């Protein structure tokens, strides 16, 4: 009989962007985030939580989250915002926003794969509206799977 895969206890929740998101204009990118060093924990996944203060996104509004990895642990790629948007392999995930006018939003993307090195995140506001002046955060909950049951 084979082993049963189970979730490991998650690592600590990390707030990667906060004040950088306040009053972020539409079609503007925030970041880079703090460096996230994953060489020790070697987490495979993160759940991404985006909390936005009250806003009124346009129909089809979304947020894109990009990842820049320092392969050598110190030097990050530094593309322009326009170039970063074209590098689809740098896109970590997108979060579709609710179009209910004037409401705060807490949105979660689950089981997003992350690399085993050091990386930073960028958040691209494609909501069709600016974010609220305060109360916006991007958090990560890193975790693994235990294949030994």
Give an account of the 3D structure.
- The chain is mainly beta and 149 residues long.
- The protein has one domain: Jelly Rolls.
- It is built from one helix and eleven strands, in the order ββββββαβββββ.
- It has one helix spanning 81-86, and strands at 6-7, 14-17, 28-30, 36-37, 45-55, 62-70, 91-96, 103-113, 118-126, 137-143, 145-146.
- The strands form three sheets. Strands 3, 4, 6, 7 and 9 form a five-stranded antiparallel sheet that branches.
- The longest helix has 6 residues, at 81-86.
- It is globular.
- The model has no long low-confidence stretch (mean pLDDT 92).
Short précis:
This protein has 149 residues and is mostly beta strands. It has one helix and eleven strands.
Give me some keywords for this one.
149 residues; mainly beta; Jelly Rolls; five-stranded antiparallel sheet; four-stranded antiparallel sheet; 1 helix; 11 strands
Unreliable spans: none
- Please, how many domains? 1
Shape: globular
The CATH topology is Jelly Rolls
Major sheet details: 5 strands, antiparallel
- Residue-averaged pLDDT, rounded? 92
> How many E-type strands?
11
Helix content: under 10%
Total helical elements: 1
Structural class by sheet pairing and helices: mainly beta
- Portion in beta strands: 35-45%
Order of helices and strands: EEEEEEHEEEEE
Q: Kindly report how far apart the N and C termini lie.
A: 12 Å
CATH architecture assignment? Sandwich
Could you tell me the radius of gyration in angstroms?
A: 16 Å
């Amino acid at each position: 009989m084979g082993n049963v895969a189970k979730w490991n206890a998650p690592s600590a929740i990390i707030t990667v962007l906060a004040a950088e998101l306040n009053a972020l204009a539409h079609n503007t990118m925030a970041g880079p985030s703090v460096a996230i060093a994953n060489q020790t924990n070697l987490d495979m996944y993160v759940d991404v939580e985006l909390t936005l203060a009250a806003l009124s996104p346009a129909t089809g509004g979304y947020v894109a989250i990009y990842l820049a990895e320092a392969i050598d642990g110190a030097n990050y790629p530094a593309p322009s915002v326009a170039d970063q948007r074209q590098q689809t392999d740098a896109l970590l995930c997108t979060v579709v926003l609710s179009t209910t006018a004037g409401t705060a939003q807490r949105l979660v993307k689950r089981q997003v794969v992350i690399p085993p090195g050091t990386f930073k995140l960028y958040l691209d506001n494609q909501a069709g509206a600016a974010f609220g002046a305060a109360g916006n955060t991007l958090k990560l909950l890193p975790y693994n799977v235990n294949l030994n049951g």
